User: Which sequence fits this backbone?
């Protein structure tokens, strides 16, 4: 007995909660000179989360202004906090189900930025679960070659 490819994909979708989309979200934030911009995600307990962020200059010349970064758990516990960052990465494993919050605000000790550069542009790459795995390293370890 053979199963059609479409039926097979449909069964995988049903088994996987109806979604084949990866748990990866990359967004661009424009952070104002005062206040902060936050992203949040509803996440189940015991999920690995890895977030990379990068600030660029609004004129796309190079690395941009620096930001202050904080991450809070579903119940408000501070999981990560850094100041004066241009780029970075943080990771955590969720301890409870709920909404996790990552906030970015302009660092206010920037004499070299003029009035025209009052915003920071931040790329945020938010990965969860299986998407956090370094599959290239796994392939090398297992001696698996990528197909073209």
Assistant:
């Amino acid at each position: 007995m053979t199963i059609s490819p479409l039926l097979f994909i449909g069964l995988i979708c049903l088994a996987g909660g109806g979604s084949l989309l990866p748990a990866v979200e990359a967004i661009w934030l424009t952070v104002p000179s005062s206040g902060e911009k936050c992203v949040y995600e509803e996440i189940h307990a015991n999920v690995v989360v890895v977030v990379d962020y990068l600030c660029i200059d609004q004129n796309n010349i190079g690395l941009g202004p620096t930001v202050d970064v904080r991450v809070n758990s579903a119940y408000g516990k501070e999981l990560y906090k850094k100041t004066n960052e241009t780029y970075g990465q943080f990771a955590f494993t969720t301890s409870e189900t709920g909404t996790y919050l990552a906030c970015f605000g302009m660092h206010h000790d920037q004499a070299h930025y003029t009035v025209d550069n009052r915003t920071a542009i931040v790329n945020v790459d938010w990965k969860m679960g299986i998407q956090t795995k370094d599959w290239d390293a796994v392939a090398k370890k297992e001696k698996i070659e990528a197909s073209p």
Notes: The CA atoms of residues 49 and 128 lie 5 Å apart. The chain has two helices and eight strands. The longest strand covers residues 48-56.
